[in-house]
Write a structure and sequence with these properties.
Helix content is about 30%, strand content about 20%. It has about 210 residues and is an alpha/beta fold. The strands form 2 sheets. A 6-stranded mixed sheet has the order 2-3-1-4-8-5. Strands 6-7 form a two-stranded antiparallel ribbon. Helix 2 crosses helix 4 and helix 3 packs across helix 5. The protein is globular. The relative contact order is 0.23. Homotetramer. InterPro entries: Peptidase_C15 (IPR000816), Peptidase_C15-like (IPR016125), Peptidase_C15-like_sf (IPR036440), PGP-I_bact-type (IPR029762), PGPEP1_Cys_AS (IPR033694). Removes 5-oxoproline from various penultimate amino acid residues except L-proline. It is found in: Cytoplasm.
Length: about 210
């Protein structure tokens, strides 16, 4: 099946930051990648509300694929996520001051969901573009994991043909000026890496049908 539209989301700044590389990269993506239309949406770093915004964006755009992008400070490369777990457990408050502790994302949901995205092919494509990338098996327990899980929950209950997944990207260089030794990635490289990952998704989706 040919992918005609991909929804790519990025979070707003959180934890007193003034920038989030996820949204900065997402909003700079080209309008078309590998023949697929790219539509973008900013999501709030807020439990539940992030999923509501995603749900509305899916209804508005009817994409074939959803790829959510989030910041993972301390990681050196782009890291596609394999799995989301049914757990909200926040080390810091979200942007509305919520800090859940050991709460389920969905009380009637399974313990975990695996992504439909070709995460190993995404890693290979990013590396082929000359950028660091690793497969990740933990999206954490903050709003990133929450949104990835909610996307899968929505898919299971409402959008069965959708492919959905998540990828973390590193800090921007400006975010680590006062963090010696913490890795970062230039914004242009983050955009290039996401573009490579999206290209791999398009190729895999076409091969799957």
């Amino acid at each position: 099946m040919v992918i005609t539209k991909i929804l790519v989301t990025g979070f707003d700044p959180f934890d007193h930051a003034t920038v989030n590389p996820a949204w900065e990269a997402v909003r700079r993506l080209p309008a078309t990648i590998a023949g697929a239309q790219i539509v973008t949406a900013q999501v709030p770093t807020v439990f539940d509300q992030s999923a509501q915004v995603l749900h509305q964006a899916i209804l508005d755009h009817r994409p074939d694929v959803v790829l959510a992008i989030g910041q993972a400070g301390g990681r050196a490369g782009l890291t596609p996520e394999l799995v989301a777990i049914n757990r909200n457990d926040a080390r810091i408050p979200d942007n509305q001051g919520q800090q859940p502790c050991d709460q389920p994302v969905q009380a009637d949901g399974p313990a975990a969901y695996f992504t439909q995205l070709p995460v190993k092919a995404m890693v290979a494509a990013i590396r082929a573009a000359g950028l660091p990338s690793q497969l990740s098996t933990t999206a954490g327990t903050f709003v990133c994991n929450h949104l990835m899980y909610q996307a899968q929950y929505q898919r299971a209950h409402e959008f069965p043909g959708l492919w959905a997944g998540f990828m973390h990207i590193p800090f921007l260089p400006s975010q680590v000026v006062d963090r010696p030794g913490v890795p970062s990635m230039a914004l242009a490289d983050a955009v290039r890496g996401i573009t490579a990952a999206v290209t791999a998704i398009v190729t895999a989706r076409q091969a799957d049908y």
